[in-house]
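[step 3/7] fold_predict: job queued, chain A
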Amino acid sequence: MAFVVTENCIKCKFTDCVDVCPVDCFHQGPNFLVIDPDECIDCTLCEPECPANAIFAEDEVPEGQENFIELNAELSKLWPVITEVTKPLLDADEWNGKTGKLELLEK
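[step 4/7] structure written:
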């Protein structure tokens, strides 16, 4: 079972999680990160590192965000791997905690 990046990462893109990942399973898009479920080893290291609380075990994804399981799998095949911490998006703190951001996802 893999971990999943959910809606709160959109428009934030904090990368603290990337720094602790031992298998480089994170991929980055323009305003969102995803986890490749085929590479994730369920080590649990990324979840507590996320300042946006946007990472969940697949079986603990919040109700209404189950579509992010498939979205992570799909986008991880298209986006490049990220292995180093980068600065969050400029207005990340303003977007952190806001809901209804799925339509803002840039592919």
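[step 5/7] annotate
The first helix runs from residue 16 to 20.
The beta strands are 3-5, 26-28, 33-35, 55-57.
exit 0
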